[in-house]
């Protein structure tokens, strides 16, 4: 087990939703699992006027998120945990002299023995990230001569390529790249990390992991919910920025990358950058027109319940052209993947919540069993990222009896069968990694920029191009029918069911 040094976590924007809903429950789990160092404290900092006691009540003692998650826990556990929380009112502005904050940090450091090690967590609107970094540096709170200083930065990391570059440069003016941890919570998911193990710790998959054996790759990220209370944020973002540019391209990079030399964070991140840089950028409008589909969910009635359309959601413009569905076809320009199409889609208000990767294998060169009733392209490796986490291999078996009738069978593995293992939640795992100085599961500046390089032309075309379509789909269906055209000629979308082995998208010709 890695060493977690004594340290202080300073959260900017600590009065907000993320702190209460994700960060504190993750820290509480780490505390219960005895993963926090002996001297560990949290200092919340924001503009809201609160005392230490009020902050403790808000995020720990009276937090509905902790209440819900840790129902059976004795109150004294929470009380001991809450004593580690402190709060500093920034006096109404993040862009101010951090002299008072510095004095508070120094006093707490001396009293609580956190040895000068500080993790800053930027959980404010992104427009404040650079301002906070600048003011920390001005107060000398970025220097590492008396303990390390690190900074976790929340998404969204930029709005497009230009703003992402500007933000990277802005932060790097005050903190070294090695101090900056850009969080992508998908990288904290066990099953996303398992993509690396599946590929590089087995000898049965990697020899097949190339254009000679793989016909196409399909990735689906579906959510059954709509935009919920985040209409305002989402309407200026959309599916491509919200999910595809970050989480899904991170998954793509793990599928596409070459084997790293070892498991050192930089070795892995170097290969991921190379992978992202090898995605073929769609340069002309026609390619983007033909290879992308965007759509919005419409109002519908599901089981007698009426569901709002996207444009009726709070915070969303009545004439909004923001997509809640995006499907993209693309190619990877390198030796391994030449001519293998990738189909990636992400959407809200789908029939179920599921994220999975499907590797579709090619048919054998010669069909021996003509009467098989099954096409060999039915060989699939399905990596279920969530829920029902696991891996499924689909292959043909002989039907008992005369002749050679072939039927499809499943070899399946479920993470839940590893019952003794406590699977850490994404924020828990990522916080612990950063606390230990392990950046493997955090995105590096060049990774983020490479992902934006790919996405930018699509965003530009969707905004300014001619003949750009916005399709509609009823809530609770698998997106617009037009999305089938994207994958036509090669098969059809898998449209996965809630269970790993469910396969409503089954098609004998696929
Ligand atoms: N919530 C979530 O699930 C997720 C959030 N994120 C990202 O994490 C960051 C924090 O998110 P979240 O906690 O939901 O955000 P909130 O809107 O709840 O904001 C966090 C805090 O930022 C402070 N703040 C400073 N300036 C402003 C301003 N102009 N408008 C609103 N708040 C301001 C507020 O504190 P005060 O007024 O006290 O200073 C607020 O409590 C954001 O960058 C978000 O994109 C990323 C993924 C998921
Ligand atoms: O980052 C985001 O992710 C969530 C989906 O996360 P998951 O872990 O539940 O799959 C998404 O709902 C949200 O819009 C997006 O900002």
TrEMBL record:
GO MF term (any one): glucose-6-phosphate dehydrogenase activity
Binding site for NADP(+): 47, 155
Alphabetical list of Gene3D superfamilies matching this protein: Dihydrodipicolinate Reductase, domain 2, NAD(P)-binding Rossmann-like Domain
Matches recorded under Pfam families: G6PD_C (PF02781), G6PD_N (PF00479)
This protein's UniProt keywords: Carbohydrate metabolism, Glucose metabolism, NADP, Oxidoreductase
Residues holding substrate: 185, 189, 223, 242, 348, 353
Domain (Glucose-6-phosphate dehydrogenase NAD-binding) ranges: 10-194
Active-site residue numbers: 247
Record-linked HAMAP family: G6PD
Family, similarity comment: Belongs to the glucose-6-phosphate dehydrogenase family.
Protein name: Glucose-6-phosphate 1-dehydrogenase
